[in-house]
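User: For a benchmark we're assembling, each entry needs the component sequences followed by a predicted structure for the full assembly. Here are entry 17's components. Please fill in the structure.
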Amino acid sequence: MERLFLDYAECFNLLKKYKLPVVDLELAKSKEELLKKAEKLGYPVVLKIISRKVVHKTDAGGVKLNIQNETEAIKAFHEIQNVTKKLKIRFNGVYVQRFIPGELMYVGAKQDPQFGPVITFGLGGVYVEVLRDVSYRIAPLDEESALEMIKETKAYRVLSCCRNKVGIKLLQNILLKVSKLMVNNHQVQELDLNPVIVNKNYSLIADARILIEK
Amino acid sequence: MIYKNLFKPKSIAVIGASRDKNSVGYGLVENLKSGSVLKAFVCKGFRGDIYPVNPNVDYILGLKCYPSVLKIKDEIDLAIIAVPAKIVLKVLQECARKKINVVIIISSGFAELGNKGKKMQDEIVSFAKTKGIRILGPNCLGFIRPAANLNASFAPSTPLAGNVAFISQSGALADSVIDWAIQNEYGFSFLVSYGNQADLDVSDFLEFAMKDEKTKGIAIYLEWLKNGRRFMEVAKRVSKVKPIIVIKAGKHEKGIKAVSSHTGSLASEYEIYKAAFRQSGVHVVDTVEELLDAAKILSMFNKIENNVAVVTNGGGCGVLAADYCQELGINLVELRDSTIKKLDKSGVMHPAYNRRNPLDIVGDALADRYRVAIETLLAENYISGLIVIQTLQTMTQGAENARVVIEAVKKFKKPIICSFLGGYFTKGPVRLLTEAGIPNFDDVKKAVKVMSVLVE
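Assistant: Structure for entry 17:
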């Protein structure tokens, strides 16, 4: 048995199969390609490092947010290139994504040997492990328990103060779909959706990591 | 059938019985014969037939000893096995021929020792399965049913009969709980230590507890589950009828796996167990004391609406109680004007009493003031339960106050949790309360914590 992380494309394909809402990613291998793709997506955009090895991409300097124009895009491209040099990993270009404003949430799941799939929810972004504002449920979730999971965290207060009613409803759907994905796919050992960006119109998965065993 | 043979056996064989006073085989026979090795109460011995089995002796404690279960003429409902691990299988084969279908295997030296022991254990289990024998253990303390004078264990003594079932993964902890329970006159419907849970496990005993009419509340000490999903399924069903409280040992994990995501490190084993308990209606506590307090209170009273009041003769303790209530999610209900009016009219309140919840009836309160306060509050439909605090002043009538509480519980059928605080001079009143089955705690926080179990 081997445990390994899926790459971005594989991750997003699996998520899409379960109709989980993701922010699409474009691959840009060169500066020219980057500018073309950013233009197509529309500024502001986000640039991300491409690597299976880097677990905490933000900590490594591999995530550049809220890029407003071509000049900033080129600068961010160089910075990420430098990060790969420093970490001695191959530079394969960058991922470009539309920048979505909103609150950063976290949805996770793992297979537990005793209880089967466990779903977690909490405040997302870079402070997940520091703040540990997380709720837990054994899958499968129903609508009620998915909502309870959201409501019992402090993250809920962050969300509910800013007219995010639609976003919360969509977040609840994400939890239900993740529950289904985990129940149906036992080879998925661990799954991190972080961040899930929630605002008054959307709940969108901007980044994902999936650990499988095969 | 298993339930009947375990809870109400008519005849028991002790295989591996011994005359050596320092051996488990001796303790088992003595516990069966007289009720307990260490005498605390007037313990009664098991009223059915006891058959010690040991090929090397004729008599143990005056009981005729048999060389093998096969030499016993009568039917055997339950066998307790305390022979060395390597001959357990042979003994079990004899039990099968004797048509015994429930055995308690006390012997250690199985899965707890690693792979070799695990293999022996698996052999025993698969043999038992083919013969339809159910196993408690191995590597366990045994089973105690005080109401049936049945102490099928090598625990030091037998506690009183009561209505809390104690299901423990640890035998040694059960021993200490028994000693504590004797000191505190705490009663059990049954106690079981299920050891390596090779066959019967905590879920099976939850089923027994559900069926058992003497059990009103269930306390569990747990380290890990054999089958988490089954536990959830059973606990969900049982907790709807009888409250289940659990203490889970092993909160902190030793290390985090090398390859792991956020979820891997966030969803620790303890968090996952907690989620499972919660989803199954199982209440989780942190200490053994809380476990037993909570189980007892839930075996005495039904759960109540979250509308609680506090009566105290000390302002400071009232403030502490209010803090703890806030922390633990207890709703201290606001007293209505009509209630205040009744208190005012009684003529026994201190002119400066605070007219709020927590109700401070002031330090010079005598028993009549406690009575008016307690009865007035409990008579109100919007108040579901009471915490009564007593601090000791020169005029405080502890014993009378205790009687007021005892009568009020009878009259209103609502829970009162007491915190008569102090030590030497408060022993007597506390004794009155506990004799009447009313829980008293020597610290306000403990009283509030127990109340929080009732309102959940």
